[in-house]
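Hello support,

Our group uses your service weekly, and this is the first time we've seen a run hang past the timeout. The protein is Ubiquinol oxidase subunit 2. I'm not sure whether the cause is the sequence or the server load. Input pasted verbatim:
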Amino acid sequence: MGTLDPKGQVGVDEKSLIITATLLMLIVVIPVLVMTFVFAWKYRESNTKSTYLPNWCHSNKIEFWVWGIPCVIILILGTITWRTTHELDPYKPLVSDVKPITIEVVALDWKWLFIYPEQQIATINHIEFPENVPINFKITSDAPMNSFFIPRLGGQIYAMAGMTTLLHLIANEQGTYRGLSANISGEGFSDMKFTATATSQQGFDDWVNKVKASDQYLDKAKYNTLLNKSIADPIQYFSDVEPNLFGQIVHKYMMPGMQDEDHKFILRQE
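Update from on-call engineer: The timeout came from a worker crash unrelated to the input. Re-ran successfully.
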């Protein structure tokens, strides 16, 4: 239901598209449902007053309406879909005078790792960002394929090992929104959830300082422990992150010969 109560511009545009497409299709669906009952009543066996035309087989007028209306609807839907597909391209950066925030996302079994490369912090199962500031998500997986989804902000996109997908969203209101995995990925899939909080710029700065006060550091050893399967993990904060961690996670599937001996982590050779 979150998609029908959007709190960001991308979600608002997607809701509008859903409603428009549904209304256009109802132009066909509603008359068909009505005519089903009307025809069943009018041409029932006990109705002896109906016109009896045993040799009737064709009507140009009926053919015109039966094929004409759906063709017009398909043409309109096709035009709208073509236009909005380009406007709502998840890889397309949002137009804004405000500098965007980059968040790197890693899908694990069964939790979400978030890395803020500019702030040099990381979290598990929680993100924060200022309202009315574009968010550039860079998404990958170090586990089976998954799907990253914040229903009230915009559409989902897949997270795949050895690949980076992009998603650009924005929150127009302060609040805490539910994030989840939208792709079945094993035993802990249903508990693979996170929270996304939109706050003021000052609130975001205070939160970053709070994270930086954590005594946990996301290095190679700590990351390897995160690779272990776990369910319903609590929120965790990391005050610092090993440089280029996200790039190392992506590239370890591209260059398997460069993995270390436990085959869980790769250090990129400069």
